[in-house]
Amino acid sequence: MTLRVSVIGTGYLGATHAAGMAEVGHRVIGIDVDPVRIAVLAAGRSPIYEDGLEPLLVRHTRSGRLRFTTDYREIADWADVHFLALGTPAGPGGAADLRQLEAAIDSLAPMLTKPTLVVGKSTVPVGTALQLQERLRALAPAGDRVELAWNPEFLREGFAVEDTLRPDRLVFGVQSTAALDLLEQVYAIPLTEATPVVRCDLATAELIKTAANAFLATKISFINSMAQMCQAAGGDVVLLADALGYDKRIGREFLNAGLGFGGGCLPKDIRALAVRATELEVDVLAQLIEAVEAINEGQRAELAELTVEQLGGDVTGARIAVLGAAFKPGTDDTRNSPALTVANRLHAAGARVVIYDPQAELAPKADFTQVATVDEAVTGAEIVLHLTEWPEFRSLDPVALGALATNKIIIDGRLKLHAPTWRDAGWKVVQIGRATSL
Ligand code: UDX
C-alpha cells in the first residue's frame, strides 16, 4: 500500500531514508530548514558522496514520488507518518544535543490536528522518545492522539542505500498496535524479504541502537588491544583475528586492527551512551566505554609516535606522505578521522604533511598540503603512512613509488598492505601487531 511519508531532516540519514521510502513505493516529502540543501535535493542531486543515492534521487524526483520542501504546512496534515531524521550532535560534556529534534517537534506539532504517528530514527539517549512525545502532545491540537514510535537506523556510510533497502533487522519501538500496524505497512517491502523484526517498547528501541554502536566499538578496541599484545609477545594479530572469526559466535567483521574507529557516529554515540549511563548510575557501562575510548585514542597516539621514532626522534621539517584522509574507505567524510588526528599531531610536531585521498576534500585552511595523486604525495617523502584502507592502495606499485620517495619506509596503519611485496621492493614496512614486520 502506498503511504504518504514525510522525512524531517534531510542530512545523511534523512536524505537516504526519503529516497529509500520512495524506492519502495511510497509518496515522500523531505523537509529541512536549510533551503540550499533542499534545492540541491529537489534537483535530484545528492549533497553527499554516497554510492547509489543520486540515481534514486534522480529517478524519484523526476517521477514526482519524491519532493522536498522547507514548509511544514506541506507535510503536517498530508503525511500518514512523519519520520524524524535529525542530527544529535555532541553537546556539553559529550551528552547528545537534542535541539534539532526539539525544534522539529516545535515546528510540526502546532499543525497536527488529527491522530498522527511520528517516528524517531535518530540515535538518542534512552528516555528521549517519551520526552519528545510529551512535548509533541503539549503543543499539538490533536493532543494525546499524537503518538511517538522509535525505529532506529543502523546504516553505514558508503552502504547507506543498501542498508536502507535491505536492512539486517528492523526495530519497531511502539506503544500501541495501531503504531505497529502502520510501521509494518511502511516497511512492507523489506518485510516481504524476511527481514527480522524486533517489536519492543520505546526504551528498548533507543537502547538497541546505542548498544549496537557500543558493541562494534568494543570489538574494534578489543582487537586493537590484542594487536598490542601481539606486538609485545611477537604474534600476528591478523591471523589471530582470522582464527577468532571462524568461531560463529564471534564473527570476523569489526576485528580489523589498526588505527581504530572514527566518523561522525560511533565515537559521539558511545560517548553519549557513557554520559547517559553515568546519569542513570550504571557505572559499569560507563567504565567499559571509557576503556574502549582510551584504547581507540591510544592507537592514534601510538602511530604518530612510531612515525617520529622511525625518523630518528625528530620530524621537524620532514616531509610525510599520508595516504587516506576519510575516516574509512568508501566515503568522503573526515569527521573524527583517525588519519587526520595522526596528520595533525605530526604537523604540530613540525612535519610537512602531504595528504592524498581519493574522495575526501580537506578545507583549504587545513594545515596540510592536499595533492591529487599518490605519486605526488610520495615524491620526496621521508616516510609514507597508510592510514585509510582505500582498495586502490592495495594495488600500488612499491617499486615505482620507491623511486619517488626519499626513504623507503611505510607504516601500514590499517594492516592491509601486502608487506612481502613492499619488502621485496626494498621498503621497510611497519605494522603494529604483526611481529614479522619488525
Ligand atoms: C557506524 C555503524 O556501523 C552504523 O551501524 C551506525 O549507524 C553509524 O556508525 P559508520 O560510521 O558508517 O557506521 O562506520 P563503520 O563502517 O561502522 O566504521 C566505523 C569505524 O570503525 C571506521 O573508522 C572504521 O575504519 C573502523 N573500523 C571498522 C575498524 O577500525 N576496524 C574494523 O574492523 C571495522
TrEMBL record:
Annotated keywords: NAD, Oxidoreductase
EC numbers: 1.1.1.22
Gene3D superfamilies according to UniProt: Cytochrome c1, transmembrane anchor, C-terminal, NAD(P)-binding Rossmann-like Domain
Biological or metabolic pathway of the protein: Nucleotide-sugar biosynthesis; UDP-alpha-D-glucuronate biosynthesis; UDP-alpha-D-glucuronate from UDP-alpha-D-glucose: step 1/1
Record InterPro entries: 6-PGluconate_DH-like_C_sf, NAD(P)-bd_dom_sf, UDP-Glc/GDP-Man, UDP-Glc/GDP-Man_DH_C, UDP-Glc/GDP-Man_DH_C_sf, UDP-Glc/GDP-Man_DH_dimer, UDP-Glc/GDP-Man_DH_N, UDPglc_DH_bac
Start and end residues of each UDP-glucose/GDP-mannose dehydrogenase C-terminal domain: 321-419
Top enzyme class: oxidoreductase
Any Pfam family: UDPG_MGDP_dh_N
Family the entry assigns: Belongs to the UDP-glucose/GDP-mannose dehydrogenase family.
Alphabetized NCBIfam families for the sequence: NDP-sugDHase
Record-given protein name: UDP-glucose 6-dehydrogenase
Classification lineage: Bacteria, Bacillati, Actinomycetota, Actinomycetes, Propionibacteriales
